[in-house]
Hints:
4-stranded antiparallel sheet, 3-stranded antiparallel sheet, single chain, disordered N terminus, Immunoglobulin-like, 11 strands, disordered C terminus
Amino acid sequence: MYLFRTAKISFVSTLFAASLFGQGGTGTITGLVKDPTGSVVSGANVKLTNEENGTSFAQQTNDSGIFRAGSLVPGAYRIDIETAGFDKLIRRPVTVEVQIMIKKGQQKTKNDSYKG
Length: 116
């Protein structure tokens, strides 16, 4: 008889919003995956899916349990994390936003575009 024990994994995320200058802007999601004892989980499969357009990105956590997805368009994302011996973890929505910053000498116009 085999006893299969399932444990939970935890996920800590950090969102970095990029500054918006001109027409485009992207953001980054960085996460750390740990088990219930606090040990990092390396090699966990991480899938990020943009909930608005369905675009997805897959990767694995590194030896330190960290994953990083950059150049993400602003929006709501779903994060699925899976690894052997643990329950699947789903986090949603994780929101990537872009901060708009005005440089000295720029003026805001009616349609929220900037010139300067």
